[in-house]
Amino acid sequence: MTDMTVDDSAADRLESALSGRIDRSAMDTVANLAHQVSLPELTRLVHTTTPLQSAVLFRVLDKDGALAVFENLTPSYQADLIQNLREPEIADIVEGLDPDDRAELFGELPANVTRRLMSGLDAEEREMTTAVLGYPKSAIGRYMSPEVLSLHEDWTAAEAMEVVHSRIDGPETVYLLPVVGPGRVLLGVVSLRNLIAADESTVISEIVRDSISTHALTDREEASRQFLSHRLIAMPVVDEEERLVGILTMDDVLDIVDEEDAEDIARSSGSEPLDRSYLSSTIVRLVRSRIVWLLVLAVSAILTVQVLEVYEDRLDQVVILALFIPLLTGTGGNTGNQAATTVTRALAVGEVRVRDLGRVIWRELRVGALLGAVLGLLGFLVAGLVYGWAIGLVIGLTLLSVCIMAATVGGLMPIIAKRVGADPAVFSNPFISTFCDATGLILYFSIATAVLGLS
Asked: Where in the numbering of this chain does the CBS domain appear (predicted)?
């Protein structure tokens, strides 16, 4: 408890020192405080301060500490930080990164900076980094580690262990070892545990087992979800000819899934994801992430206003109908959003595929009918007792219809988005809410016209 209190206090004082004027004495203070702060706290401070303040903090960290903190930053924030570091400091950090992490960083930097940093790498590191950069940003090959320790099928366990010992410090992981044949064609994998347990004379081909692999051009989220669904510790990556080109590890998969989930959550609420922490984002960046969606939704909401204008004469005849508009539009939007969120998640984890469209529509139609029956009965009783049974019948039938429509549309839209190659999250909550508002009002006034005999 005492150590934690000291660390928190030092972190607060370090944050305060970084926020003030930085001169020689201030740099000494920052250096002294930085040595009292834990690595997670240093990472948090670098991630939540401005790039210039972060650069000041970086300059007082030793090489290992700076690299450890740098690896925990998002690529976009790494790129901002690079702009404020001196060339020797940048070279040391870039050289210490794994090829896949280095490729992510280079993807965020200007071309001239990337060329300069690439020229400072040795030939082997440059070749591996170039190989990863050759894949599209959306492909899993961009996030694999090309530095993979593979075994040949005709080696003995003793020979394989000798290779593992000699190259233990190079690869990102040695817990799962791909086995290759002629031309580096992937044959399977051997776990380090099984290799250690095998008799020294055992040939690798005798203990190899089938592996779950992915193609280097596979979409990064699809490959990551497959990785997690099979509870893997590593997964070989192959090219079109099934040749081993790299390996995907758990830390890379978790980063991808976190980024994709953050993007889905942001877009489902009508905004763009931030590429850096909230506190270190400028006001302009925060506004930019939200304004486009607000404008789109504002324009689309005009449809709802036009629907009300069309049925204005019905409202004049039965003013009481206006009281229930928020209830009905809110119920439709919430029902649609629930269905969309459920189906979007099912698509993400592979539980639902595009070809399941018919099954999803049929399920959501029944779910919507049951939800609508419960809410409609409740609405009929409450509204009927207070405003008369004719109004109660209008409200009950509208709730039933709106729930069926909203649940069906909510389940349908993410699959359509997936089919046309769009992000299902974009098609979900914001647009579904607007669609259900307008369509729900049309259903509401149509039912009211029929039941109450309006003209």
From this structure: 144-206, 207-263
